[in-house]
Amino acid sequence: MSNKTSHDSDVSFIQALAELLRQNDLTELQVKRDYGENDSLNVRVSRQTQTLVQASAPAVAAMPAAPAAAAPAAPAASANTDPASHPGAVTSPMVGTVYMAPEPNAAPFVAIGQNVREGDTILIIEAMKTMNHIPAPRAGTIRRILVEDGGAVEFGAPLVIIE
Prior knowledge:
Layout: H1 2-23, E1 28-36, E2 39-46, H2 50-62, H3 70-80, E3 89-91, E4 96-99, E5 115-116, E6 121-127, E7 130-135, E8 140-145, E9 152-153, E10 158-162
Antiparallel strand pairs: 1-2, 3-10, 4-6, 4-9, 5-8, 6-7, 8-10
Helix pairs in contact: 2-3
């Protein structure tokens, strides 16, 4: 029971660090907590720069090359607006590592153009060795995937766009 309580407080601690990072416009924060012999917590929270977001966008936009109407609209939208401000953006509820599939070499949870229902798992974020299934907050179609499998994500970062 105390391990669960410790885990919950660690998750709250990491979320507080992410908020501190955002509020103070820091790019990275690293903390080590020692709980006792062979028991510690090392946390490094870092913010992705705008360059990284833009670098991943062309790879995502290149994937739906088949529909002629969708290809020109995606780059224009990403050039003019921040994906986090999009009304269909699903943002990260925590800091962690993104996994697009339930296990290595398995099919991804979602793909661009796929319809999802409210509550469907769209990806997993691993935080503190816990796999957190991230559900679709509403029904719709996956228009953009803004993260890469195995990549780091911060609290509040846009993950996907559902329209």
